[in-house]
Design goal:
mainly alpha, Cyclin A, domain 1, transcription regulation, about 60% helix, Transcription initiation factor IIB, repeat, about 5% strand, extended, zinc-finger, protein biosynthesis
Amino acid sequence: MTDSVRGYTTERARARESEDETESTDGDSEQLRCPECGGQLATDTEHGETVCADCGLVVEEDEIDHGPEWRAFDSKEKDQKSRVGAPTTQMMHDKGLSTNIGWQDKDAYGKTLSSRQREKMQRLRTWNERFRTRDSKERNLKQALGEIDRMASALGLPENVRETASVIYRRALADDLLPGRSIEGVATSALYAAARQAGTPRSLDEIATVSRVEKDEIARTYRYVVRELGLEIQPADPEQYVPRFASELDLSDESERRARDLLKTAKEQGVHSGKSPVGLAAAAIYAAALLTNEKVTQSEVSEVANISEVTIRNRYHELLEAEEQIQVP
């Protein structure tokens, strides 16, 4: 083939391609134009229609909506409603990203598996569990997070406290703070710190009752973790214990409000300095119940607050004295 013939053929091919592109463009533009007035078409997703933006002609109706059936008004609500699996959580050692093989020995149709298939599935579950905890750190984390969840459930702590405690433990593990200390001790101290950070504190005695370590070890490990991780934890406020104590004793709102007033007065007088916040809260609850003519014994308050009756009597007199000093002109 000569150069002139080859050039002619190339020119013909280019011309044909340009014609095809022009035809496809014209076809697309015709499809996006109104058949009546030639105006621009727009899609109304709310009504499932395609309408002309100029004359309002409905070109198509009852279109299929491929979006979700729910509505969301902000990004947070959208993330909550999106069905793409369970959200990640710090309360699981793998953050909930791994899969589990169900314990029901049934197939997709609900039929029971044969003995051979059951044995196979049990082997798969065993290997799946082994792969989920591949090294010592993951096994450590799995045990600690299980302890945190168990203790938080026993103490009635909310989910945000469990998440915070899990993050604190992960930081302690990453900073290599565990050598020489028990897993249960660090997990308990992380939960104690998280409860205080969230404003739902529990006393050391309450923490020790659900923990597998002694109270002294919890306090020692807690101070160490807070110092090494640089956690900012404010001193416990006695008023934070009042709602829980009042709820467990079934006291009225008036008694709870009166107890808060007594504690505020004690702070103004400096009575709270150096005193146990749990003891002050228990004494305020007892004093408020007496002032509002509600029948509550020191023994009942002592049992709820997990503190001795002697402490309640001592703090009770101090609170009333501080109240009298304020009332005296």
